[in-house]
Predict the 3D structure of the following.
Amino acid sequence: MNHATQTQANQAARPQGQAIEVLDEHFTPRSARINDDRVTGRQIAEAAGYNSIDEVVVLQQLPSGALEELRPEELVDLAQPSAERFFVIEGDATFRFFLDGLKLEWPRAKVNASTLLRLARKGEEFEVVQQLEDALDKVLDDDDMVDLSHKGTEHFKTRKGSKLITVHYNDQPFELAKGTYTTEQLSAIFKVDLGYLLDLWVDGKLVELKPGEELKLKGGMCFTSHPPRGQSS
């Protein structure tokens, strides 16, 4: 095979176009290729499998970490470093907020701390703090929801979180490592009486934890226990 033929074969073997990463609101990634170096928001939506730009919001994550909406005919140069990460999410509006000093937009009126950490590309050792004007800053649990549609712009920051949280069993405090525990693990830690069943206080009501059930601990959780039905304490 001569040099020209070899060059043509190598070019044919290379993937055509630019590779981009497209994520949905759950951060599920999919790879796509676009033939142009300069592409529009419309082309990115099509690469993500949507026929109409009217039904989705296209967001580009910039090298700084900021996240901004890409209009249907707005051009992006994929040759620029770190220009290939996009979100394509069903919706027709975005809500602005600041995270670690960076402006971000998100097409959902409510956002939780878990999503904010993933947008900031921070691991589980970090926590999210909601910065409030008229009150003390609030540390958010992973599933705490913040409404972005209220008047004003929300501000958040991330920081290394404490590795320990405090929970209570029968009013006795226990400092435990953050994480997920089974019913049996918690019963052993609390030294629950043999045969007794473990309960969690939820909104003023006792919820019995099932055998093998997994529970992600949050600071301030309160537990108690009770004997099996039909057996007096």
